[in-house]
Write a structure and sequence with these properties.
By secondary structure, this protein is of the alpha+beta class. The protein has 5 helices and 11 strands; from the N terminus they run ααβββββββααββββα. The strands form 4 sheets. Strands 8-6-10-11 form a 4-stranded antiparallel beta sheet, covered by helices on one side. It has a 3-stranded antiparallel beta sheet with strand order 4-5-9, with no helix packed on it. The longest helix has 14 residues, at 2-15.
């Protein structure tokens, strides 16, 4: 009987494996980033990088590994002082916009977000509950968004175009007091 108990405990110990946080698989990242439950929605707030540019035609300066999905949508300028423009490249209309306070972190810097986020979306009710600012029932392909009432810091902007959801990471620079070095410091 003792031999059976020892064998049972030994088989349990040998069957267990140590989780290694330094090597995250794509499926782990998927579930962490796209968790749509409000209890786990902290990852809807995660900003893993940012792209800065002054106008729609500027090539963006990329810092970190931005977890963004911007299929045919452009936001400028970034960083934002007062307001920013959202435009679609084609003539598709923007339906809704949600702006969420973001948490910048230097995580997942080697992941291919273009591939990982290809089929990802968030539900409208999750975005509604999490948003600091939202605008709905839009029918335009370019929208000027006033963010003067939001405090300075990192935000995620979610844009619904038709049935497609896009998102970007921005920095609202209040009165323009923060230096570019301060804005990109989480990813250096």
């Amino acid at each position: 009987m003792n031999r059976i108990i020892v064998l049972f405990i030994l088989s349990i110990l040998l069957g267990c494996s140590k989780d290694d946080d330094s090597q995250t698989s794509e499926s782990n990242i998927d579930s962490e980033i796209i968790d749509e439950n409000l209890e786990g929605a902290q990852n809807i707030f995660l900003a893993t990088g940012i792209q800065l540019k002054q106008s729609r035609n500027d090539a963006p300066l990329k810092y970190g590994n931005p977890n963004i999905k911007m299929n045919g949508v452009i936001i400028s300028p970034n960083p934002v002082i007062g307001n920013f423009m959202i435009e679609t490249i084609n003539s598709d209309n923007i339906n809704s916009i949600w702006i969420l306070k973001a948490k910048p972190e230097k995580k997942y810097q080697n992941e291919n977000f273009e591939e990982i986020l290809r089929t990802v979306s968030y539900k409208d009710n999750v975005l509604n509950d999490a948003a600091k600012l939202s605008v709905k029932d839009l029918t335009a392909n370019n929208v000027l968004v006033n963010v003067e009432d939001l405090e300075a810091g990192y935000y995620r902007v979610f844009i619904k175009v038709g049935e497609s959801l896009n998102w970007d990471n921005i920095y609202i620079n209040g009165e323009g007091a923060d230096s570019p070095e301060e804005i990109v410091s989480p990813w250096e």
